[in-house]
Amino acid sequence: MRIAVIMKQVPDLVEDVEVDARGTAIDRDGVRWTVNEFDGHALEQAMLLKEAVGAEVTVLAVAAAGIDQVLFAALARGADRAIVVPTPEGRTDAPRVAAALAPALTEIGADLVLTGVQAADDLHGQLGPILAASLGWPHVSVVCGAELHGSAVVVQQEYSGGRTAALEVDLPAVLGVQAAGRPPRYVPISRLRQVIASATIGSHAPAAVVPAPATTVTRLAAPAQESLARMLEGSADDVARQIVEALHEHGLVGV
Amino acid sequence: MPGILVYIEADPGGVAPVSFEVLGAARTLAPHLGGPVEALVAAADPDTLAAALGAADSVLTVTDPSLTPYLPEAHRAALEEAIRVRQPSVVLIGGTSAGIDLAAGAATATSRPLVAYCTALRVAGQEMEAESQLYGGKLVATTRTAPPAIFSLVAGCFPEAPGHAPGTAPRIALPPPAALQRLRTRLVGTGAAAAGTVDITKAERIVSVGRGIGAPGDIDLARDLATALGAELGASRPVVDSGWLPKERQVGKSGMTVKPRLYVAVGISGAPEHLEGMRGAGVIVAINTDPGAPIFQVATYGSTCDFGDLLPALSARLTAAG
Questions:
Q1: B163 falls in which pLDDT band (50, 70, 90)?
Q2: Which of A247, B9, B170, B265 could be joined to B16 by an S-S link, Cβ 3.0–4.6 Å?
Q3: Cβ–Cβ of B72/A167 closer than 8 Å?
Q4: pLDDT tens-digit readout, A23-81
Q5: In whole angstroms, what is the distance from residue B256 CA to residue A190 CA?
Q6: Alpha-carbon distance A203 to A165, whole Å?
């Protein structure tokens, strides 16, 4: 069983995200990057499958500044190897990333591909479905838990309103993971240091150039709508008093 | 062919509410684009769903047992076939789990671009102009795309009313695609995540905690406030995915949609997926140390106080007053 996990970094949304001078992309300088949390769940799900039935887990990421840290952390969490794949012209839109990754996945002989269901920097959730469509494999998104049964994977797919379905999917397949069967494991820093000192990250040949998608971002900006909330100022106790007063006015307490 | 194709999603109640919003968006765009609005119903028995779609100019039906309940691979085959046969200039689909399953794959298979997560969509000359929320709602991207193209629309951002109309639209039956005979995906069970003891959709007051809560132990501060308010405890997705609170308490796109009279959001940034589940609340009190958090755009009252100071102060005042 060969499992591939595709990971990437996104800006840490705890910090502000600034727009560049052209106003069509984020200003990448000064951004604090963090691993896409859904990709972290995809990796954890791969580890759970490896522990359950045995598997070789390869983590792939497209080339980007600082990506080695993501891959070393994945190795420290139990992945068997890590590979960086360059994208044409360094572009990272989902169609180009998929075009770069598809040959690498074929070469690895992946039976199951796991990636985060979406990422905060595009939210499109396109990578999994595009990969599946270009490989001709079945795909399920919004997966919360998976188990391998012979040559198939049984996944929990989630819908709005808390509904779920269990789907059995023949391998090879691509899954967009929202949550692993359990929360991602903690890796001691000593283990990470050990991996950085000893492990190597492989690289894959650059992919052929694919046609650019026919969409153009003309503007990227903070939402035009100003804060609608009445902001309550003062100490914690002042604010608590104002909230209680407001709840009284709305008939929500003390009536 | 000019025109708009709308993918109709089913839920246990019939046509999913988001599909009426998408159909409403199609009706709003249609006068500017020209061509008919065609609704695609792919189901084992399309009649009931089709009967609710009087707002469409016609209803395309694909009838096959594999299409009910929803199966991603089967619905993708039906959608792709409908796009190939009808060649619409614009395809609209709700930004749900099905939307993520189907839109990008259909875009790849039919060589159309996809603009996902649209919160606004309009015709701009020969192009379509869409707005999409990125970075947890902190930024809005405006995108221009020449049709033919596919757009997925965020639930709750488009008016539902134009999607409802009495009467029945003419039916056009499409043959089931051959791919339905060789599916590699099978449904083996269904369930409701909210099988626990709490139904937060019925709660009049909810205190919800988000990623900003930092540590599972701090949820107790929110629990105390919930007790003081007579509220149920809710959570955003990261808190549930971290295993800090059970799934039945999750508010948002992949959790519950709630409409309480009072919603207190603690350490919740207000990502679009969360807002989708609580936008309809009466009074929203948001507590978040980040003044730029998108939750303040929907909140009634906001505070950037540290929740570790504010929640005990608030609980104490409410308990004293109660």
A1: very high
A2: B9
A3: yes
A4: 888 888 888 899 999 999 999 999 999 999 999 999 999 998 889 999 999 999 999 99
A5: 40
A6: 38
Q: What is the pLDDT of residues B267-308, one digit of tens each?
A: 999 988 899 899 889 999 999 999 889 999 899 999 999 999
pLDDT band at B194 (very low <50, low <70, confident <90, very high): low
A100-130 pLDDT tens trace: 999 999 999 999 999 999 998 876 778 999 9
Mutate to test the interface with A, among B110, B135, B150 (most CBs of A within 10 A): B135
B151 CB within 8 Å of a chain A CB: no
Residue in A with minimal Cα distance to B192: A163
Provide the ipTM: 0.90
Angle at CA A235, nearest 5°, toward A234 and A237? 115
Q: Three-class SS of residue A229?
A: coil
CB contact B322 to A (< 8 Å) = yes
CB of B302 closer than 8 Å to CB of A230: yes
In this structure, which amino acid lies at residue A38?
A: F
Report DSSP letters for B231-271, one per residue: -EEEE-HHHHHTTSS-GGGBBSTTSB----SEEEEES----
Residue-range domains of chain B with CATH? 4-182 (3.40.50.620), 200-321 (3.40.50.1220)
% chain A with pLDDT above 90: 65
What's the pLDDT score for residue B67?
97
Partner-chain contact A217 B141, CB within 8 Å: yes
SS3 content of chain B, % helix, strand, coil (to 5): 35, 30, 35
Owner of token pair 């983590």: A59
Terminal Cα distance for chain B, rounded: 65
Q: How many CB atoms lie within 10 A of CB A50?
A: 18
Answer yes or no: is pLDDT of B65 > 60.
Answer: yes
Dist CA A163 CA A156 (whole Å): 10
Q: Which two tokens stand for residue A30?
A: 């000064």
Rounded-to-integer distance, Cα A12 and Cα A32, Å: 6
pLDDT at A96: 85
Q: Say if residues A46 and A3 touch (Cβ distance below 8 Å).
A: yes
Pure H helices in chain B: 17-33, 47-51, 72-86, 97-109, 219-229, 237-241, 272-278, 307-321
CB atoms < 10 A from the CB of B117, how many?
25
Q: Return the half-sphere exposure (C-beta side, CA atoms, 13 A cut-off) of residue A206.
A: 10
